Structure formats: C-alpha cells, structure tokens
Amino acid sequence: MKENSYVSADDIRSAFSAAMSAMYRDEVPAYGTLMELVAKVNADTLAADANLKERLDATDTLDRISEERHGAIRLGTPAELSMMRRVFAVMGMYPVGYYDLSTAGVPVHSTAFRPVGEASLKRNPFRVFTSLLRMDLIADEALRAEADAILNERRIFTPAAVELTEKAERDGGLDKVDAEHFVAQVLETFRWHDKANVGGDMYERLHDAHRLIADVVSFKGPHINHLTPRTLDIDRVQALMPEYGIAPKAVVEGPPTRNCPILLRQTSFKALEEAVSFRDAAGGWKTGSHTARFGEIEQRGLALTPKGRGLYDRLLDESRKIVRPAADGSNARDYAAALATAFEPFPDSWAEIREAGLGYFSYSLTEKGRQTKLPGRRNLDSLIADGLVQFDPIVYEDFLPVSAAGIFQSNLGDGAQQEFVASPNQKRFEADLGAAVLNEFDHYAGIEKASIESCLKALTAAVAAE
Ligand code: OOG
Ligand code: NI
User: Fold this and answer.
1) Residue 312 has pLDDT above 90, yes or no
2) What pTM did the predictor assign?
3) Choice from 129, 213, 225, 268 to test ligand 1 binding pocket (greatest atom count within 8 A of CB)
C-alpha cells in the first residue's frame, strides 16, 4: 500500500473523539445539556472579552473551543491495558504520567493516553484518563479470585478492532476505509451495557468490597464514564448547573480562581443512577441499578515545574487542613475562601512566576529581537529585560491525582470513602502496560528548552548570516 494513502493518526483521533461525543450524548442526555451550557458560557465569555477572543483566535481554533478534551475508562486486567495502549497508539495517543490513587482511597493506578506534539495537540487534544483496577489492594482473597476469573473471561475488544490494530502496526497506518472501520469497531469497547456480566449477588459482593470494583468487574466492557469539554469560565458553569437541572459536585477541584491560571481546574455533575439488569438463578434478568456515568468540565492553565508543583501541593494541603470539602456541598463557600487564602503565597503574575522558577514557559523573539543581531550568546533574563525575547505560559496537558481522586469520590457516592495503604507501583503499572510512561515534567522542560535554544540560535545566527 502506498504511504500517502494512509489517514493521519491525528485524523483518526479526531474522528474517534467525535464518535465518542455523539455516542455519549445519545446515551447520557444530561451530558448533552452540560455541553449546551458550556457552549453558552463560552460564547458569553468571548462576547464580554474581546481581548480573550483575539488571543484565542490567534493561538487556538476558536470554533473547536467547546469540544471534548478528555474522557475516562477503568480497565480490569494487564492484558486489557496493554491492548488499549496499542489501540490508542493508532490514534497518536501515548501514555503520559503515572497517577497513584490508592492514597485517596481508590484502588486503581492510572495514566493518560494523549497526543504529545504541539501540532497534534492543536489538531485535536483528546485524551483518555485510563485506570487499571488494583486487585492486590482487595483484602478478600476469595472475592479477588472470583473477580479475576470473571475478568479473564471477557473480551473488551471486537475481533475486527484487534485485527485493524495489528494491521496498522504492521503497515504503519490505515487507509480511509480501514480507518473508518477501526473507529466504529473501537467505539464498541466504550459502549454502555445495561445487562451486567454477573448476577445480582455477585454485584453486591463486589460493590461491598468497593463500588469501583463492581463498576469494573460487573460489565462486558470499560464503558466511557465521562467526557469533558473545555470551559472558559468554570466558576460560572458550576454556578449555572442547577438552573439547567443538573446537580454539580460539591466543589471545583484544583487551584482557586486566579488572574494567571495554573494547572487544571475541574468539576462535574454527579453520576446518575441508571437501570441495569443482572442475571438471576433461573437464567432470566432482574432489574437493579448502577451509578457510574457523569459529565465533567475543565479549564487549563500553566504547567508547573517540580518546584511550582511542590508549592501547589503544599498550599492545597494547607487549604484542606483549614476546610475539608464536604461531599454534600454544605461548606463549599468556606472551602473556596480557605483555598484562596492558602494560595496567597503563590505569585499571580507571569513575570513573578517565571522569576521564581515555578512554571514552564515558551520563549520567542519579539519584533525588536527579530531585527537584532548579537555578537555572542547572552543570558535569557537580560534578553527579556532588553525586550528581545518574550515568554508565554505552556499549558498543562495532564492530570492531578488529588483532583482525580475528588472526581472519583464524588461519583462513587459519599459512603465510598475507604482507606488503603499508599502503595504507588509505577514499575508494575509499566510492566502491565508493556511500555514506560512519559514523564510529564521532562516533557514540558524539553519544550521550554527547545524554545530558548531556538531564540538564542536565531539571535546569533543573524550575525553568522551577515
Ligand atoms: C477518572 C477520574 C479522573 C480526571 O479528570 O481527573 C479524571 C474516573 O473516574 O474514572 O477523569
Ligand atoms: Ni476527568
């Protein structure tokens, strides 16, 4: 097959995220309502802020502003995780970051499959937060063995999805017909199944061990449990949700509202209780319910260096010592106030954040810089001071374990709080995945470094060219 007849991985990912969006809106009408609200708030925000509109027009694709940025699934076995890695690779999505959620009472560890290069992120930034159930954290050995047996029986990928993934690996891509077929087949893996894989008794036992275990083990596949569009004003969407008939989670996760947004802010509407049926002893079906699916929104800001992240983690921890957000939202105002107070030591101008070495920036030449020729290399700060080089925040494209835990918890129900011994095991996760995850800090540092190098090179190359 000729190379130029292949569809780009970025285009396959775009088609996949559009197909997921259509399927999820169809399956979860409340999600469609959330999308409408987000589109309205984004339009209002842009109408009220001409500057923002201009900036987004220059740097982003304005017409895609309210589209999904991520979704999430929960897998049951190492084999499912490693096959999922191969499927996502066909769509240009690679594992970035390792998140241990055991500390937060959720028996999973996770990565995010996402596009990595700037051009790919611009084309379509869709990512999937992917968790693997940690059976090793389940105390009940008999239950563990039964759950393992159930999981080992199921096949979450269609035969055609596996074949097309192998074909893409072998040939280095898929042509148009195969790519369309691939998207349709892979979509099946994420579909909701209202008929459980297990009987009602087994579901109860799994549920008693942990709600998340029931969610993973009881069904035919890893149904997509939420999708997340981007909002330009997360506080406003959070405030308006009740008016639209959807129940927001108690608080927005992540940093407080700031002039200079950092990392990631997220909130969701609470998972819906949905009718499902379980096998009964006579081989028929018995109706019950399951709570797993919700809708989320996100707003992203500056990627922080390890030093910045250290400060963020410490301040977040301090805010939670003042007020711990209650699941019912009763102290949401106090929590927002405590968060704002706790974050006062975190500088709130790009220049101060940069000078303190707290964030990653992308450097470029100013107009003056483009017309300047330097005899030799000079230090970056002096080039900035002389107006030759400017800097823009690099956007954080990853996730936050404390926030993720908050999202998990609010959707597992209030009684689901459970203690596990902290036991991050990235080595084990990577062995199960069949690959190493990219370290997100190294990645941002690399982008920053390359931008500095290219400025210095351009400033001195002007001399060489003369
Ligand atoms: C994933 C929760 C984490 C996020 O945005 O932090 C997540 C899940 O509930 O499976 O999606
Ligand atoms: Ni999410």
Assistant:
1) yes
2) 0.94
3) 129
